[in-house]
Structure prediction request, 563 residues.
Amino acid sequence: MSNIDLVPLQATLKEFSPQGRAALLPALHAAQAIYGYLPEPVTAEVARALRVPLADVYGVIEFYAMFYNEPVGKTVVRVCADPACAMCGADAVLEAAQRKANSDYTVERAPCLGLCNLGTAANVTSGDRGLTFGKVTADSLDAVFAMNAGEAADYVGGDLRVLTALCGQGRAATLAEYEAAGGMAALKKVIGGKTPPAGVINEVKNSGLVGRGGAAFPTGVKWEGAAKAAGSPKYFVVNADESEPGTFKDRILMEGDPCRILEGAMLGAYAIGANKIYIYIRGEYPTAIERVSAAVDELRQAGYLGSGFDFDIEVRSGAGAYICGEETALFESIEGKRGFPRVKPPFPTTHGLFGKPTAINNVETLATVPYILTHGATAFRQLGTEKSPGPKLFCVSGDVARPGLYEAPFGVTIRHLLDDLAGGVTGGGLKSILFGGAAGAFATEKDLDVKLTFEDLRSAGLPLGSGVVMVFNETRDMRDVLLRLGRFFAHESCGKCYPCQLGTQRQHEILERVAEGKQRAGDVTRLSDVGWTMTDASLCGLGQTAASAVLSAMKLWPEMFKG
Ligand code: SF4
Prediction:
């Protein structure tokens, strides 16, 4: 007989059971907040209430890193040791944290926590409370474990402040502050003035806006596809599952100015004919989840949701799975399943969330939409270059004087970003810059005058990705950087297809040998073969790009890989 009191859980589950399986992740989060982990009677009760087979519930729990089916400490402390935090001494912090672990505190190594500008980062959860701390040192661990360490402030700067005008103040701008700065004007203008949805789509198409999440697909074309697709209801989804090592822009936007993103999403939902908006935020971003949820409440109270404007917005928390940033894996997660990417086509515009027509956009993309619809496509095109219009956010981390979030028009040079905005390289000369994130490529001194546009970076062989600019000075050991990237992909591969599942493991093993100087005969060829096999044969973008940085390093520094 179980001595677990299920009464509080049963009361909580009443709220979720009408949604059935689609509420599985929120229900598991709520259950874990009550019991600290998900023991068998709790899991069975969730399965019963949501009418999901118990085996499926176990499959979901095991898939997500932030769910536990074995007892853990009352407080779980996750310390990031990916490249940017490692440069700030994360290994020593993690070791010190592990020495403090006991039956009350569980300590884990976490994949990137999205505070690359504020390393070392640590995420702490206890019951239904979650906090993330930056600039953690061995000396501040007591306060971090007690969840009362001070908050480290993000530096936000740049040549423009179109998207980031209200960010970087250490708190979220209120709806009133957003409105005072011109916010919600686009929504009122479009819906109040009854601009038809096609008019909104045309304006966005004319602006030349392309997605800022990495894929750079034209936003207006995506919206048009979803608007014209047969089937109802339609859904609008905000992809806020930012987890790429080196990326923290969406976190700062959500924490600083959540109403801007929600206004962009409502404009998108109106354009495609959707009434329901989901915003899926990674579980490691508790502050963003809290502030976006508070902004949704403010919008509701102010009449922007419900009767006045026919939208409903639901905030969803991820549970620790990088792959859920892949759009179809994100849909699966909202539907209450493991985050396995789907085979495409069919594409989300016709067969998206719950198999219905869906538009899904990244946070930064949506933050630009209110500007376009308030000021017009022409004004937007006056920022940036002809082929890369608009402002862009760059996440600068590593060896620079001022790591932070920088907003600049497309077309400035890498040199300008590094020297004029971020204050220059520190600790020695420049060794390299990782562009585009873990799935990116390395730039060196010779690339400093390349312009930051999609087309210039592409011809220099550098992906813009999600705007990651991670800087390494000449004292850094690039083998260690590659090892950490390799570990990240091996950890985050979802395991659905073999080229990636096995390839990321083999890649990690070879990178371990390279880092230790214990290469075996044939390792160079093996590393290259594994990389190209993943690139060519993997099912989704994770596997297709998991070798990108490694292959780029092999080209730049072949001597590094030889024994
Ligand atoms: S490429 Fe990797 S992450 Fe993508 S489906 Fe295959 S195993 Fe999963």
Remarks:
- DSSP finds 24 helices and 14 strands in the chain.
- The chain has a mean pLDDT of 96.
- Residues 27 and 46 are 7 Å apart (CA to CA).
- Residues 323, 341, 493-497, 500-501, 538-540, 542-543 surround iron/sulfur cluster (CB under 6 Å).
